[in-house]
Amino acid sequence: MDEQEKLLEECMRNVKQESFQMKRCMDKDRLMDAIKHASTILMELRTSSLTPKNYYELFMGVCAELNHLQIFMLDEFAKGNRLTELYELVQYASNIIPRLYLLVTVGVVFIKSNENSRKDIMKDLVEMCRGVQHPLRGLFLRNYLLQETKHVLPDVADAPLASSDNGETNSVLTQSGTVFDSVDFILANFAEMNKLWVRMQHQGHSRDKVRRERERQELRLLVGTNLVRLSQLESIDIEKYSKHVLPGVLEQTVSCRDAIAQEYLMECVIQVFPDEFHLETLSTLLKACSELQPGLPPSLTLSPSFPLEDIVALEVALVNLALKCYPDRTDLVDQVLQNVDVIFQKQHVDEVPGDSAVCKELAKLLKIPLDHYQDILTVLQLPNYGKILAYLNFKPRKEISLYVAHNIVDHCTIISQQEQVEALLVMLTPLIEDHASFPVDPTDEEFVEEQTVVGKLIHFLKAEELDQQYLILGIARKFFGNGGIHRVCYTLPTILFAAYDLAYSYYLSEAEDPKWSKKCQKIFQFCHQTISVLAKLELFEVSVRLFLQGALAVSRTPFENNEQVAYEYMTQAFSIYEEEISDSKLQMMCVLLVIGTLEKIECFTEENHEPLRTQCALAAAKLLKKPDQCRALVAAANVFWSGKVRGGDAELRDTKRVMDCLKKALRVASQCMDNLVKIQLYVEVVDAYSLFQLRGVDQVTDETIVQMLQKIQEELPTLDVSDESVHINKYFQNSLDQLKKTKPELPF
Amino acid sequence: MNFLGFGQNADIEITLDDADKRKTAEIRVEENRKEKLLLYYDGEGVSGKIDIKLKKSGAKLEHHGIKVEFIGQIELYYDRGNHLEFTSLVKELAGPGDLTQSCSFTFDFPQVEKPYESYTGNNVKLRYFIRVVIARRMSDIVREQEIIVHTLSSYPDVNNSIKMEVGIEDCLHIEFEYNKSKYHLKDIIVGKIYFLLVRIKIKHMELAIIKRELSGSTPSLFQDSETIAKFEIMDGAPVKGESIPIRLFLAGYDIAPTMKDINKKFSVRYFLNLVLVDEEERRYFKQQEIILWRKGEKLRKGQPPPVTNAMQTYTATSTVRADPQEDASDEED
Predict the structure, then answer these.
(1) CA–CA separation, A85 vs A44, rounded Å?
(2) In this structure, is residue A271 part of a structural domain?
(3) What local confidence, expressed as pLDDT, does residue A577 receive?
(4) Annotated domain spans of chain B
(5) Which residue has the higher pLDDT, B278 or A167?
(6) Where is the region Disordered (chain B) (predicted)?
(7) How far does the CA of residue B304 sit from the closest CA of chain A (Å)?
(8) CB-based contact A235:A282 (threshold 8 Å)
(9) Residue A698 has pLDDT above 70, yes or no
(10) What does the alpha-carbon distance between residue A23 and residue A679 come to, in Å, rounded to a whole number?
């Protein structure tokens, strides 16, 4: 058993002994003697040797005994023994602790027996308790006062008007008090208790600081009870709260200049009073918050860092409160953010370290407005949001950015103002640009997902005005252009598609905007530059695709000079293909894309179309692998047949060139060494033949087709049985079936 | 006196009028013993009956006269045999002669002047008594009956509060105020202590009532101090700006009115001593004399004083100054 337990046990033993004596006196109706024993019991509470925890134990024991005394006195009063001098008699006690505990006990008995003097007694008790300046003993004494008066506090709003014939009613009420007296009483008690509580911090050795702070935390409930009591007064309405209750509480909270107290008390205020009250007094609350202790006094630099996270946590609570009560008042939320900013500045915080508690709280704080408004536009209206975001270091900042991006995409928030776009993109910088100390792994799934979301987000940057939209795209392009090779492939293409759309929109509204044509030129120039950036970064495949897509977009947007532009796009695609793409698979794919694109473009005159289509056929024939050549040639044939030139509605229908392509394809197929591949190609080519025949290429005769079919039939059995051969057989059979439907006269 | 077992002797009994109705008061007769006696005021008559009972029936009591006296006297303990009588009234009850049987006399001292209050101190005693003496040749038969006298005063015309700032430079500055300088014996001392500067670790603060008794005259001057009351008014260490209430009920203590230069023999004065004790048990104190006086009791019947009487607080006449450090203390203890 340690020293403390021994001490406590001894105190409790003394209490028990005296309590026995006290009860004997009560049995014999000797009140004064009983009070004397009670006074002796109370002497135990004068001790300085117990820890707060043990003092509390002792206090509870003593309170139980005082309760017996109180009941006994109440009985005496009920019997008609009016012991008016009792209030004086207990004050003869020469030691202050027993004296004041007894005074409180008797005072409460008086109040309970006769409410007339209630107001005076309350005032007297709370004032007399000043005599105990020792923090621990004072806190408990005042706690006793608060606890004993719990059910006797006046809780009526005002004294009713004096009745006409006499003023007695009124004077009785004046003496028994109104809720204002209760408020004054509790506020006075609260202020004194808080002072005592704060004072604990500054007594004793600085090496005991940690222990002291722990003890203070243990005792905080005693102080908070005052606020609870205030909140329990039913006749306090919003007006009384904002005029009489809150100012007093805040004044004390701010002026005590103690971080632990401020944090706890603000939390208390917010928790114990109803939200409607906070709603009405929000600006007062926020103002008080801004006046809270920014940090430790300079003389205490040795102590561990100030719990910023708690301040921020407090602000989190405040923001929640503000949003709950006043969903439309963004200024209030911003005010809170500003408070944080001010606090950080005062503390010279430049960057909050990641993984710290402050960082977590801050992230929480920043997510609240997003979650609440579900609308980034509102968040963008908070001038201080960005400032706070900037305190976070890269990782958490990125996390918030991503949260923002998801928020926009999930809620389809359209961002239509230039300034908003700019602000947003600044906010999203961690997603847009590389950070020196956080290298990007382009294969990382998270990264891919993140950039995909960013890409999606671009679609939501959409002005109502086309000119505006152009500017927005310019801004986006500027921001995303800095993204580096791993990001631009996700972002710039999206911008380009948006730009292509924009050009088309100008065309659709050509009647309204005489300058639309010039603007389209400008857009495509912008796109050209943008794609070139990608090409410079050696993102060739995507560049080719984008150029081709651009050519298509140009083609369907008949602005002035669009043919040249489209031609430029096509040639760019060609040249990148020719100069930069070496992988044969990619080459094959590109050729097919080019061919497909050209077939769809209708803006070229013969002069430009001819070299392009020839180039297609050439490129097809120049592919490395025979099967690729064969298939590309078949595809190229389409350009010669269904391609269109400007002015004419009709397709080219260049039978000769179609036949050249098809024949060449057949020839290439026959050159294949691998039977399997060769027959596969044959089947494909014969398909093409029959298709073109159907489309009207009269040089394709049934005879040719039948010959080819026979040839395939001969060759098929030579194939070894394998998955592939089964597949080819099936393919061939399908082709035949198809053919039979259109040409039932064929002998197959 | 009964030499050789013969001769007559007598018991004297003094019965004061209205003994059963008159108020009584207590007075200390020995160190720890109090006696309850009838109470008289200045100017009141003292009357009564004297019964003399002969112890032997049939024998006569020869005497040189019977008298009754009213005496007020001061006894200085260092000079036991030499009592100073400041009041002495005598009435002859019978001339010299013989008493043959028990007899009774009545007596009446009308409107007796009783200028001082009865007092039992450590070095001096002031008392009043009735003395019946049957004078005889050999030894007188004497009987004394003491009474108590209380002197009443009227409300003092001037009764200023006591207010003072004291301190030890750069260490402790306080300002204290007591609501009055003159208190009646059932009065309440109400006041406040303001702490203007606190740089010492105060443990507690108490208010003491000190009685100072000065008796005799040079060269035999005796001074005696006694702490009548020790009343803790503060527990723990206050900080600058605190004000601590004082409320001390005098009714709870054994005190008497201040007596100044009573018959050039003694004085009894009272002081309020404010004491601050620091953690090293050093005591800082300041004494102020207060005048105590006795107020005539006029109890309204059936109406006890309201509770608020026991709640008097001192309404400050001064407030704590903004920067107390600036005014250097000129009064130190």
Answers:
(1) 26
(2) no
(3) 92
(4) 2-150, 162-330
(5) B278
(6) 300-333
(7) 7
(8) no
(9) yes
(10) 116
User: Where in the sequence is the domain holding A697, given as residue range(s)?
Assistant: 681-748
Report the CATH number that the domain containing residue A572 is assigned in CATH: 1.25.40.660
B233 in reach of chain A (CB within 8 A): yes
Question: Does A461 share its domain with A539?
Answer: yes
Residue ending a domain, choose from A581, A610, A632: A581
Confidence of residue A493 (pLDDT cuts 50, 70, 90): very high
Is A84 in contact with B305 (Cβ distance < 8 A)? yes
Q: Domain B2-150 classified CATH 2.60.40.640?
A: yes
pTM of the complete model: 0.61
Closest residue to A96, CB basis, from B229, B232, B311: B232
Q: Closest to A131 (Cβ–Cβ): which among B239, B244, B308?
A: B244
CA dihedral A320, A325, A331, A332 (to 10 degrees): -60
Residue A33 lies in a domain: no
The answer to whether residue A489 sits within a structural domain is yes
Q: What does the pLDDT look like over A478-487, one tens digit per residue?
A: 999 888 888 8
Question: Does one domain contain both A519 and A647?
Answer: no
Q: Is the dihedral of CA A172, A176, A179, A185 positive or negative?
A: positive
Q: Which CATH number fits domain B162-330: 3.40.190.10, 3.40.640.10, 2.60.120.280, 2.60.40.640?
A: 2.60.40.640
Separation CA B34–CA A430 (nearest Å) = 94
Name the domain count of chain A: 3
**Residues of chain B found within 8 Å of residue A87, distances taken between Cβ atoms:** 307, 310-311
Mean pLDDT computed over A342-347 = 78
Can you give the pLDDT at residue A307?
62
- Phi and psi (nearest 5°) for B262? -75, 110
Based on the fold, state whether residues A506 and A564 are members of the same structural domain: yes
Cα(B84)–Cα(B106) distance, rounded to whole angstroms? 27
What pLDDT score was predicted for residue A115?
A: 67
Distances (CA, A) of B2 to A497, A583, B6, B135, B140: 145, 156, 6, 14, 11
Residue A549 maps to a domain? yes
Q: pLDDT (tens digit, 9 = 90+) per residue, A671-687?
A: 988 888 999 999 999 99
For A167-195, write each residue's pLDDT tens digit. Answer: 444 555 567 788 999 999 999 999 999 99
> In terms of domains, do A498 and A546 share one?
yes
Q: What's the pLDDT band for A309 if we cut at 50, 70, 90?
A: low
Eight-class DSSP state of B274 = E
- Domain co-membership, A468 together with A527: yes
